[in-house]
Amino acid sequence: MQESVILLTVVACIAANLPFVSRRLFGVLRVKDKHFGWEALELVVLYLAVGGLARVLEAQHMPVHAQNWQFYVTTFALFTVFAFPGFVARHFWRARPVRKAA
Questions:
Q1: Do the domain assignments include residue 96?
Q2: Based on the structure, what is the number of domains in the chain?
Q3: Is residue 66 part of a domain?
Q4: Which residues of 23-55 are buried (b: 16+ CB within 10 A; e: fewer)?
Q5: pLDDT tens-place string over residues 27-85
Q6: Contact between residue 62 and residue 46 where contact means Cβ atoms under 8 Å apart
Q7: In-domain check, residue 100
Q8: Phi-psi sector, 31: left (phi>0), alpha (psi -120 to 50), beta
Q9: Which domain holds residue 31?
Q10: Is the pLDDT reported for residue 99 higher than 80?
């Protein structure tokens, strides 16, 4: 079971940053300008995919427990925290102009 938790955490960290790594929509479709709305949509879809994987892994080890809305809000907040490095790299880091030595 410990391996499943580690695997799920690593997959969640990678999936949370995927929307900010690629300029393509879902890594496949070309878009002229991928703005934040597309990235947010990708983030929600990947959150649902990781949640599905978590449900499958839970079902392998024990009966699946029903969750209330508080669980989903908390896990989505954690997923967005995982996405913070990719968001910062995409939107806040700008290439600085190269200065020529005098």
A1: no
A2: 1
A3: yes
A4: eeeeeeeeeeebeeebbeebbeebbeebbebbe
A5: 788 888 878 888 999 999 999 999 999 999 888 888 888 889 999 999 999 999 999 99
A6: no
A7: no
A8: beta
A9: 2-91
A10: no
Q: Which residues lie closer than 8 Å to 86 by C-beta, 6 or more apart?
A: 16, 17, 18, 19, 20, 21
> Rounded to two decimals, what is the model's pTM?
0.82
- Name the β-bridge partners of 25: 29
Asked if pLDDT for residue 102 goes beyond 70, the answer is: no
Q: How far apart (Å, rounded) are the C-alpha atoms in residues 72 and 78?
A: 10
Task: Name the packing angle between helices 2-21 and 84-91 (round to 10°).
Answer: 20
Determine, yes or no, domain membership for 84: yes
Burial degree of 66 (CB within 10 A; 0-12, 13-18, 19+): exposed
Tell me: pLDDT of 94 over 80: no
Asked whether 20 and 87 are in contact (CB, 8 A), the reply is: yes
